[in-house]
Every structure is written in structure tokens, then in C-alpha cells.
Amino acid sequence: MTDVRTADDVTAAATALIASNRRRRRIRRWIAIATLPLTLAALLFVGKLLSMYAYAHQSITAYVADDYAGSEASARGQEFLNWFEPYKAPFNVGTALAGAEKLPEARAKLEESLGLATGLEVCGVRINLALVIERMGDSARSDGDGPAAAELYGEALTITTEMPEECDSEEAQEQSSDPERDMQQSREDLEDRLKQKQQQEQAPPQEQEPEQPQEEEPQPSDDQLEDLKEQLEQGTQERDQQQDDDGGGSGTDKPW
Description:
By secondary structure, the protein is mainly alpha-helical. The chain contains nine helices and no strands. 23% of the residues are buried.
């Protein structure tokens, strides 16, 4: 009888163990199902970070090589699920468009980037945006549209003068997209240049003085011409008479 109870106990224990294993498997399965979205999100986040840096590197490399179309294409790859530093994607796209002289499109993208930038991120965006608008003003001036050029120069000047004071700090310089560019010096040079260009376009054109007409010499009247003619004839007669009077003298010709 004891052996039978021992066998039953073993069977019961085995059954309980199997049931426990099943419960653990079900729990693990449900945990896996429950955590699957978090796992996918984590993988997506890591993939996004890696792709963002890859696209950014490709965009910069292409821009340096004057491949503005390639730079733009790589920068647009950053726009998908643009969660991390969202201002960078339109900033890179706008910069590439500016290199390709697509200035209105570049301005639109940089203005979009400025709306997404926070803190010191706005410094570099403002400088590039002002440079693009300045070039738009240069283009208008080349087309002979002075008022439009002056207006664009004024807009660019407003963008630079509204830059936060923190943009002159070393921290802002460290976060610049172009470490070799002195942020403060670039802003000051840009402001001076824009002021000068704006003043040139706003200055009234200098009027050229009309040329004074040359005074015509008065023509002699008919009476004056007649008197002159009589004087010449009288002088001729007197000279001929004098030559006749001197004809029997010393025999030598008098010099004229």
C-alpha cells in the first residue's frame, strides 16, 4: 500500500510540475506580447538615431563636395519620423537648397526649421536664413528691382538683430553647424553688410544736371556784311594807289 501511495504522489507531483510549466510559459508568452510594442519602439528609436546620423553625415559630405542635389536628398531622409532634434532635417534641406540657388524654397525650409528650434539651436538657423534672404535681395537688385531688394535686406537685418544674446557665447559656438565659422563675427559682418546694402537701395538716385546748350555765335546782319565789304574794297584801292605812287622810286620792291 505504501508503494502505491508513493507512485500516486510521484504522478501528482509530475502533473503539478507540468501544469506549473504551462502556466509559466503562458505568462512568458503574455509578457512577450505585452512588451512587444515597447521592444519595437526601442528598436525603431535606435534605428532612427543611427539613420539620422547616417543621413546627416551623407548630407554634409555631399554639400562639401558641391553635390547639392545629393545633399538635399540625404537631408530629406531625416524627415521621416523626425522626433529627435526636429529642426535639423528642414535646416539641412534648406541649406542644400540654398547651395543650389533655390532661394525661395530654401527660405521656406529654414523658416520651418526656425519654428522648430529651441534655445541655442536658433542661432545657426537665423544666420543661414538671413544669408539666404540677403542673396534674394542681391538677386532682386541685379534685376533692377531696388525697392524689393531694400525690403529683403530689411527682413534679413531684422532676423539678425533679433538673435538672442546667448548666440555670442562659447556654448553657442560649440553647437554651431560650422565650428570654423565665428558665430559672433559672422553676425556682425552680416549686419554691417545688410545695413550698407539697404542704405544704398533706399538712397534717392542722384539727378544729373542737364547739359547747358552751347550758345550760338550771333550772325552778322546784312548791313554789317555790306559795311565790311565796302571796307575791304576801300583798303584794296588804297593799297593799289600806294603801289602806283612808289613805282618810280628807288627801284627796289618794298617788302610786304
